[in-house]
Design goal:
It contains seven helices and six strands. It is of the alpha+beta class and 167 residues long. A hairpin with a 5-residue loop joins β4 and β5. The longest helix is centred in the middle third of the chain and has 13 residues.
Length: 167
């Protein structure tokens, strides 16, 4: 992964990506910039989807280079991994907030939701076992509007079979 320069760099990266990478002690490379821009434009993509879109954006790049970029950017907390049960690992830009996710049981659509307000019985454990808690991950499950209206991407029969297999 070489350092990127010139006009190509300007078309790929948002102005702050280079600074954010440097601030994290990382080299500014074409695959990293492309991964960041793809994830910024299309939150909640799986690694293979990121890889496909990076290739569309910059041409030839190895799958390993994209996976390495995803791992490095996640380790440096520039990206955040989201892992809904039964789904592939998904990636989003780490915005530094503590938002949660809502996932459709039928089609797998996922959306960000703000933290709940008020009394949340499961967000703060009664017993911390000495842990200093700094974050809670909450995933809400249900049906998206399309699936609830019968327009979802997966069939109800297929979903019922999947639910039985996971029970």
């Amino acid at each position: 992964m070489g350092t990127i320069t010139g006009a190509v760099e300007e078309t790929i990266a948002s102005p702050d990506w280079r600074q954010r990478l440097r601030s994290a002690g990382l080299r500014v490379t074409q695959p990293r910039l492309a991964v960041l821009e793809v994830v910024r434009q299309n939150s909640h993509l799986a690694a293979d989807q990121v890889s496909d879109r990076v290739r569309e954006r910059i041409g030839t790049v190895s799958t390993q280079a994209v996976y390495d970029a995803l791992n490095t950017l996640t380790e440096h907390q520039i990206l955040r991994k989201v892992e809904p049960a039964g789904s592939a690992m998904l990636f989003e830009i780490n915005a530094g907030d503590n938002h949660h996710h809502i996932v459709c049981r039928r089609c797998g659509a996922i959306a960000d939701v703000e933290c709940s307000v008020g009394s949340i019985p499961c967000a703060v454990p009664q017993q911390t076992h000495g842990f200093l808690i700094d974050e809670a991950e909450v995933t809400y499950w249900g049906l998206c509007a399309d699936c609830a209206a019968g327009r979802g991407r997966r069939s109800v029969e297929g979903e019922a079979a999947r639910d039985v297999a996971h029970a």
